[in-house]
């Protein structure tokens, strides 16, 4: 089992084996999972009372210099699962009573994930939790299998996308991907206790000094979809990590003033969703990527 990969917008044509990593994402073809357990760090409409059943995949096709999940996003750690083992993982989480199945950064494993979802016959919503850097062609493999899309919209400036994620085409690719996500699932639908059962929730991580990207992300959400049809989540928990000497502008946190300005703009544009005050932004809900819930092979 070996393939030349063109799944994501990079289309790097890397040769990836079933269990042999390759490409920019540093991933094999079979999914590598670092953790599969209830997670309470997602937005309230997803986490609910019982948590989101979060499956954290290793590797990433974006590689942001400031990534908080660097321990796994660089392709390290995790356990490789067959498609049937991944399906069983999904079913176990459902049996444990989680409010949704939350698939975190799985774009590099999309064909295997789609196959596992097809055979799982889940009765809880499936959430595709992604960087937004995806191809429309790949996303179409998920149509009918995913009920909730949870994409990032990180940058509107191609030069910022190049500087921080080596992806100058990110803004255009993310916009096209999010429009495709909305085409598949339509406007937000809510069930009992305000839980989201279908729809698109767009996230934006506010970076220090990057207010223009945040305003553009809000404008994109407000101008591209009917009023009230999508949710927007402004994330203000950015925390500098080690090794950012080449990006000195990212070595501080977001100020309360920067955050308040963007919250106000979100309100002016009348977007429904979520935001954090900077004082409430902590790393307490960052899980341990220690193989919890992943079956040994």
Your description of this structure?
The chain has 297 residues and is an alpha/beta fold. It has a single domain (25-280), classed as TIM Barrel. It contains 9 helices and 12 strands. The strands form 2 sheets. Strands 3, 4, 5, 6, 7, 8, 9, 10, 11 and 12 form a 10-stranded mixed sheet that branches. α8 packs parallel to α9 (256-268).
Helix tally?
A: 9
- Unreliable stretches covering 5 or more consecutive residues: none
- Sheet with the most strands? 10 strands, mixed
CATH topology name: TIM Barrel
Number of domains: 1
CATH class: Alpha Beta
Q: Can you count the beta strands? A: 12
CATH superfamily label: Aldolase class I
**N-to-C span:** 18 Å
Show the helix and strand layout:
Blueprint: E1 2-5, E2 14-17, E3 32-39, H1 44-47, E4 52-57, H2 70-73, E5 79-80, H3 83-95, E6 100-104, H4 110-120, E7 126-130, H5 136-139, E8 148-151, H6 158-165, H7 170-185, E9 189-190, E10 196-205, H8 211-224, E11 231-235, H9 256-268, E12 273-275
Parallel strand pairs: 4-6, 6-7, 7-8, 8-10, 10-11, 11-12
Antiparallel strand pairs: 1-2, 3-4, 3-5, 9-10
Helix pairs in contact: 3-4, 8-9
Descriptive keywords:
297 residues; alpha/beta; TIM Barrel; 29% helix
Summarize the structure.
This protein is of the alpha/beta class.
């Amino acid at each position: 089992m070996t393939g030349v990969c063109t799944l994501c917008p990079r289309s790097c044509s890397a040769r990836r084996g079933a269990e042999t990593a390759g490409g920019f994402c540093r991933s094999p073809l079979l999914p590598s999972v670092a953790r599969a357990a209830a997670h309470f760090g997602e937005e309230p409409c997803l986490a609910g009372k019982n948590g989101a059943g979060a499956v954290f995949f290793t590797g990433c096709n974006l590689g942001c210099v400031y990534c908080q999940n660097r321990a796994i996003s660089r392709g390290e750690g995790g356990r490789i699962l067959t498609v049937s083992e991944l399906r069983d993982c999904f079913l176990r989480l459902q049996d444990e009573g989680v409010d949704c199945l939350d698939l975190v950064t799985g774009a590099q494993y999309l064909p295997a994930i789609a196959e596992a979802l097809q055979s799982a016959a889940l009765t809880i919503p499936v959430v595709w939790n992604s960087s937004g850097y995806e191809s429309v062609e790949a996303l179409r493999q998920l149509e009918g299998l995913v009920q909730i899309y949870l994409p990032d919209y990180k940058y509107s400036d191609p030069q910022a996308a190049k500087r921080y994620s080596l992806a100058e085409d990110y803004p255009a690719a993310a916009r096209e991907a999010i429009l495709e996500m909305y085409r598949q699932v339509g406007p937000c639908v809510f069930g009992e206790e305000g839980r989201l059962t279908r729809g698109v929730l767009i996230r934006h991580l506010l970076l220090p000094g990057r207010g223009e990207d945040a305003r553009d992300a809000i404008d994109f959400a407000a101008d591209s979809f009917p009023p009230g049809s999508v949710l927007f989540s402004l994330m203000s928990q950015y925390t500098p990590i080690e090794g950012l000497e080449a990006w000195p502008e990212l070595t501080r946190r977001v100020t309360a003033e920067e955050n308040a300005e963007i919250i106000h703009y979100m309100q002016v544009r009348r977007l429904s969703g979520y935001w954090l005050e900077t004082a409430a932004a902590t790393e307490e809900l960052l899980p341990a990527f220690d193989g919890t819930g992943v079956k040994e092979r």
